Amino acid sequence: MLQQKKLILPFLLMAFLCLGNVAATLAAELQYTLSMPEPHTHYFKVEADLSGANKKYIDFTMPVWAPGSYLVREFAKNVENFEATDKSGKSLRAEKIDKNTWRVYSNKADAVHVSYDVYAFEISVRTSFLDASHGYANGTSTFMYPEGYEKTAGTLVVKPYQGWDKVSTGLKSTGKFTYTFPNYDILADSPLEIGNHPVYEFTTNGVKHEVAMYGGGNYDPERLMADMQKVTEEAGKVIGELPVDRYVFIVHNLDHGGGGLEHLNSTTLETSRWNYGTEAGYNGFLSLVAHEYFHLWNVKRLRPLALGPFDYNQENYTDMLWVSEGITSYYDDLIVRRAGFITPQRYLDIVASSISNVENTPGNKVQTVAESSYDAWIKYYRRNENSNNAEVSYYTKGGVMGHLLNMDIMRSTKGEKSLDDVMRYMYNRYYKQLKRGYTQAEFQEGVEKIAGHSMDDFFRDYVNGTKTPDYSAYFNAAGLKLVNENADRNVPGWGAATAASDGKVLVRAVNRGSSAWEGGLNVNDEIIAINGYRIDNNDLSRILSEHNIGDKLEVLVARDGKLVTLQVPLLKDKTIRYHFEEVASPTALQQEIFNKWLYIKNS
Ligand SMILES: [Zn+2]
Known about the structure:
Number of helices: 16
CATH class of the largest domain: Mainly Beta
Helix content: 25-40%
Number of domains: 4
Strand content: 25-35%
Radius of gyration: 27 Å
Bound molecules: zinc ion
Number of strands: 30
Shape: globular
């Protein structure tokens, strides 16, 4: 999978090599052991036993990234004490041949044993963490794979710290703390939560769902399980089949945090442990549940061509994260709405606010949503002070694209079809029938098939272009128009994000085309005084309210230790604030589409 055969090899020889490889893979056996004798030191001990390889040397490689999180994270940086021995315990020579590969000179030994320690102290859904209270091991930052044996099945034995008696993972169990995996992809894709956490359960569509709750919090387990059950059931209706026989939620309840990472039959969610106490926090958590759970279909099975089989050694480029992530974002709040946790009005507010968010991002006019997907590795995951000017989020804009596609389809089919039909069609065609990923052209074809007309303009202008859609024309299908509350507001704006730090007012970001941008304010400038008066961070909005568009302010800043005086012209605040309004006298069809879209049952 990783090492491509040289193309210049004659076909027969190539076939022979491939067969040879398969034979070696079939004969080989692989076992990993994960232990944690001193969890307070944050080191996992990993052992891998490969037998039946009989090779001159074997390369053990640590992935550089975790699928679902598109950043090269260099997990090999946390590896220490790599050692290799043969069956008799005799030491085998091992050397690093690149940043994440250890070559073990096995000299045709029948069995090779390697061991290493992994420092695990980065608490996030995509890394590994171990302390005196629990262990969380993500396959990609824990287990190296022997190259050429990625398809080899194996076992994993977990040795929890003494007194810890729970392991939660999507891996198939064959005994206490013993698991099997059919290939490395599954091992890498099945994080393990290890400790004494409570585990709750519920059943959706006949499938047992386990919820491992680490960290405590103000949730009521009974209510939460009932609500997660409703969310998963509603999510399952989109595609109409649940392709797992078991599903595991690992929930990290932390002092603060948020996010999730999807896996084939499990997910890890991170949330603030006191979030459950407010309506917004609680519904936000359900939306996260819906998001990661919907990935079970969208991206873990229905996937862009580049996202599987994974190359763990480098970036895997795709221009389709706006579908994998954006359309999943489209579904997360929609599923929560369909399950009845938020009102239609609240849902409309969420949609209007995400459109405002996209249109208020200057980068939306610089980067297309397809480019945003492609460059996730170097941009979305590596944001800096200028990101808003240069980038658009494939999550937010992708979600907005989902709404426009859905409205287009509902209008074209008179409410008979929706984006759900596209997702169902794509899932059946590419995941089930063709058993491969799809390209952007194929996704467009899928939309066209359901909508019944060409989508060339849409993909040219909005997916591969930065044109501003006529939103109201789209939402007219449901009898709605999008209204900018700020359209008639003639007030000046700063266009700079500032923060108070140690009594200083510091510029954190400057929006392209704003007053701050035109006046030459820089990120990291300390704003000391305006028009001769010393200011603090709260004065900035007062000063704006006392001036008009066209006024000039004299702004004294400290920049790299020098005082600089700037003349800042006050420009109109162009911030958009959309909300939906009903069109005058909506037709019966518009009303019907509105009700179908928002799951309003006719009384
Ligand atoms: Zn996602």
